[in-house]
Amino acid sequence: MVFVMDITKSKKFVPLLVFILTLTEIVLSGNVLIWPTDGSHWLNMEFILEELIQRNHNVTVLASSATLFINSNPDSPVNFEVIPISYNRRNIDSVIEHMIMLWIDHRPTPLTLWTFFKELGRFLDTIFQMNIQTCEGVLNNTKLLARLQEGAFNVLLADPVTLCGDLVALKLGIPFVYTLRFSPASTVERHCGKIPAPASYVPAALSELTDQMTFGERVKNTISYLLQDYIFQSYWREWNSYYSKVLGRPTTLCEVMGKAEIWLIRTYWDFEFPRPYLPNFEFVGGLHCKPAKPLPKVLWRYKGKKPATLGANTRLYDWIPQNDLLGHPKTKAFITHGGTNGIYEAIYHGVPMVGVPMFADQPDNIAHMKAKGAAVEVNINTMTSEDLLNALRTVINDPSYKENATRLSRIHHDQPVKPLDRAVFWIEFVMRHKGAKHLRPAAHNLSWFQYHSFDVIGFLLACVATAIFLVTKCCLFSCQKFGKTGKKKKRE
Amino acid sequence: MVFVMDITKSKKFVPLLVFILTLTEIVLSGNVLIWPTDGSHWLNMEFILEELIQRNHNVTVLASSATLFINSNPDSPVNFEVIPISYNRRNIDSVIEHMIMLWIDHRPTPLTLWTFFKELGRFLDTIFQMNIQTCEGVLNNTKLLARLQEGAFNVLLADPVTLCGDLVALKLGIPFVYTLRFSPASTVERHCGKIPAPASYVPAALSELTDQMTFGERVKNTISYLLQDYIFQSYWREWNSYYSKVLGRPTTLCEVMGKAEIWLIRTYWDFEFPRPYLPNFEFVGGLHCKPAKPLPKVLWRYKGKKPATLGANTRLYDWIPQNDLLGHPKTKAFITHGGTNGIYEAIYHGVPMVGVPMFADQPDNIAHMKAKGAAVEVNINTMTSEDLLNALRTVINDPSYKENATRLSRIHHDQPVKPLDRAVFWIEFVMRHKGAKHLRPAAHNLSWFQYHSFDVIGFLLACVATAIFLVTKCCLFSCQKFGKTGKKKKRE
């Protein structure tokens, strides 16, 4: 296929094309190491890997021997380095099942917040043990480490929900980039990434609040931040010891995580409430979305027994091409558990949603879509078929839902650079320049006390207090003297 | 000229090209109204105008009858609407001269800070009077206003150093975008744009500090913020009244300025210290920079008398093509007063600098370049020819200056989208979507008290105090009761 264009007739193309050619020239072919997290996280990350391969990079994935989706397909151009671990796929399934049940039973409302976090805290121990196994599987594996050293990697791309990717990068002496949806109450982003989050209008993750809060909601939001900080600071203590042990010097999890060159956040302003961020944060939500392909006629598989009560107009499928279905012009609404990947496919195609959130970021995601007028929520614990039907009727018949979904879709499509291209641009930037230190805020060099200027405020208040004290003393002294002189005069 | 490319051989071009084609399709031809500021501000803004015209937009500039550079060239495709005012070019020259002398005599060091601001405060009155004349020249001019209304403008682009552009936009019922280098201590950006600026690592404008501060410097920085806030809050009081009068309802300057859809800031991370910002802030520094053209042989004009003491190897020119000269491979160093435009040309071409700053942002600009290791400063008040020579020798002979200038140049050139394209993209975005409300932080709806969560903190502290009080009371009551019982038992 040959593409012919008369650029003398379209002046506006010239600078753009010249710029792209310049950019392309300096893109090098390099080696990228991947530290993934399983499940939907991997499904999203895979799109970045595909793009990196398209751009002639060699991609190696560090995957544990027990995995849900991270398959080492022999035809794939991706290299897989398997980390041997003792737990298996069933253990992971069980963890996920427990996590879902925890959320369904103790959804963090103001009344259940404390119970939820207490239960979650216990749960974090299991995750800690599994994560440590993965870490040890690399860091104590001299053969694997030596092989990785020989791999001459230029960058490590890590999903920090599975910790230790940063440690592996440090051991190999290479820069690393994070890809992340969120951490509870943005604990990691705020404390390790130094992103500001004013509690007055930036809702804490897992709070289901929006950027428009009443006084009561702002109190709840502040408590959410404090409580989640408290829980995760305790959780981090174990990690601080582990990180110090591995690096052979006293350090903290946050200090190491703070060395990330770029934070690729898996949302964008079509989904997020506008909030302050830093130049090394890039919002690349929806990077996996693609135009829909026409729906095939006999592609879907059917499995399992059809319930007898099922209506004649309902079909059951084991797997459907969700993106293509959402992009079909006849699709009216999307009933979703509210995962970020699915929500972004709905935003991309402008489809209003009925959300039945279950766990993790799902309730928050649906809260965002509700606030933007593109979704109705149904509570999984209390819902009846009537509720679901009403919700569905609302998003289909009330035109505002379709309008808002379309508006979000327009915002999503109207960016100077596509999210996937931005994500890969910054990974390649880090490869070209061996980092992105010019984007790193000096806040990393300050203690929390200095960061908030508490020392300066204390000093200035002490100065003012001293000044007031001295002035008062002088006044009193003068008054006394004047008083004495006055009395003396009177007496005379 | 025909451009032929076989895109089957270069897969990475396909998505980029498709994306550009999609973007180009939705770019509309619209009407842009410009509210400029004279001098170097205009020289920078002109590049945006040229690009807008290239992209088939109609551009109309509102220019006062007294102007330095804003010429209404009859061949230019730009329309000019002249605002009649009573002051003339000589008055503007005199204001600039006074401003420079004020800075040279009272450069804001810790010792002269207060005197400087007192003098500046007086000076602001003159600027206020001139600015008000320009405002009235439009807002009280019913014929001009009617003509503008007929112009069916889609967006107004304003340099907020000359106030009232926002008011004109509001009167016409169109969205507006700002282009801005800085306001003193980021007063406007912080208070009206809601951009966070932690005093611990974000140096106040005009402070000449960097992001790496000692305790003493952080005290100085905090005082800079407080002092400049105080001065400008008083200055704004007059504007608050004027804005309320024009809009016929009680409002403030900040409330109106806060309605800006996008803030185009004329710096980038090659120049700025990394700092928090908001999604409606776009850093487009160096948008005026272009590759150098070969230097012409007899193009430069010579004017004036040559001093007798001038060496044989020095030439005097009335005007030189600065960008082309800086881009010449034999250019070793750039002696500059430190204006943002010139600094960016030096960054673009990777030329180390000797800075002799005079006023406004110039001392700050040179402080930035010094901190990044690309410049040496010479003090205009105390310098000898020896000082200048030494500075020049340092930046030429010490290779670190050239290396750092080259590093900044690499950072500048390695962006996903060129600054000028980003600036124009967001202006066009506002035209396409009649605003960019999805980027506007909810902080605009909060009072400063609420923004900093002082009400929530107060409430939580009151709760804690009440709890402590109740627990103490209970304990005391129990002790008393227990004590009495104990005594009674003892007595028995």
TrEMBL record, chains A, B:
Membrane topology field:
Single-pass membrane protein
> What top-level branch of life does the organism fall under?
Eukaryota
Enumerate the SUPFAM superfamilies for this protein: UDP-Glycosyltransferase/glycogen phosphorylase
> Carries keyword Membrane?
yes
Entry keywords, A to Z = Glycosyltransferase, Membrane, Transferase, Transmembrane, Transmembrane helix
Q: Which residues cross the membrane?
A: 456-479
Q: Which Gene3D superfamilies match?
A: Glycogen Phosphorylase B
Cell location: Membrane
Record's GO cellular component terms: membrane
Q: Which GO terms describe its molecular function?
A: glucuronosyltransferase activity
Enzyme Commission (EC) number: 2.4.1.17
A Pfam family: UDPGT
Major site of localization recorded for this protein: membrane
Provide the top EC class: transferase
Describe the reaction catalysed, as an equation. glucuronate acceptor + UDP-alpha-D-glucuronate = acceptor beta-D-glucuronoside + UDP + H(+)
Q: Which family does it belong to?
A: Belongs to the UDP-glycosyltransferase family.
Q: What is this protein called?
A: UDP-glucuronosyltransferase
- Per the UniProt record, the source organism is Suricata suricatta (Meerkat)
